[in-house]
Amino acid sequence: MKALQVDGLPDVLRGETPDALPSHTVRFWFSGRPAPERASNGMVTGAFVNNYFWVSTIQRPFIEWADATGGSAIECHQYGAIAEEAEGLSDAVLLDRCRRDVERIWPGVAGTCIHQHLLRSPPGHPDFRQGVWSRLPRVRTELPNLTLCGDWIDPDRHSFFLERCASTGLEAARSLALPLGLDVNAIPPLLEPHPPSAGFEAYRTFAQALRRRGLLPSLDR
Ligand SMILES: Cc1cc2nc3c(=O)[nH]c(=O)nc-3n(C[C@H](O)[C@H](O)[C@H](O)COP(=O)(O)OP(=O)(O)OC[C@H]3O[C@@H](n4cnc5c(N)ncnc54)[C@H](O)[C@@H]3O)c2cc1C
Fold it and tell me: C-alpha dihedral over 161, 167, 169, 175, to 10 degrees?
């Protein structure tokens, strides 16, 4: 965590910024198709990527290419610990490990890779380790007409990444509307989150009780 510094506004904005982690984006183009067979546990356990999208099914240039060729294309993301581990690897090794995971999970594309691409992004992915959240700056600041939104602003409700950007952006816009003489009703309100399931709530109560008794470490700092 670093203290938030804004030129000319020392100590006015309370909070800190989370550390930033690297992220990697890899793309594979296959002459084959992923369906129909696939490993039942997908990317969930042990894969060298955190996230993936079969872009040949959702994004136009890839869809057109797949329609024209009968092939398929996937984009995979690494962030957090996996991206840190991959930092020390050569491009060839990183791509190879990711491609082997994809091929293992979707045997339909095994051995059919015809093109691959790796983008190493500079560190910019927020590191939300335990205890970080309560130290982030909040949407409303002490300065008139200055609100904050985005990835590393305390959203006041549980959300991550894009959802967090959108929800803090809406909250920031709504709190500025009145002082700026704009119609606050023109800006959609935030949807109320679904309450946690009964089982989760019970476990949370149990964990909080253990923490109060010092049997679990505090996660706040
Ligand atoms: C590889 C990867 C995969 C991801 N996948 C997902 C996902 O699947 N789902 C999800 O919810 N989230 C995902 N995220 C996270 C998501 O992209 C971010 O949470 C979100 O984009 C952050 O939005 P933001 O508006 O806070 O910041 P950004 O989107 O980073 O926008 C900040 C903007 O400010 C601009 N900028 C910076 N400095 C200046 C300056 N001095 N002057 C002018 N402009 C400036 C930047 O160019 C940028 O356009 C992913 C992120 C990465 C890196």
Answer: -150
- Model confidence over 88-134: pLDDT tens digits? 999 999 999 999 999 998 999 999 999 999 999 988 888 887 778 77
150: Cβ below 6 Å to ligand 1?
Answer: yes
Is residue 23 in contact with ligand 1, taking CB distance under 6 Å? yes
23 beta partners: 121
Nearest atom in ligand 1 to the alpha carbon of residue 150 is 26
Render pLDDT for 191-217 as a digit per residue (tens, 0 to 9).
888 888 999 999 999 999 998 998 987
Q: Ligand 1 atom closest to Cα of 160?
A: 11
Domains recognised in the chain with CATH numbers:
20-126 (3.90.660.20), 137-212 (no CATH)
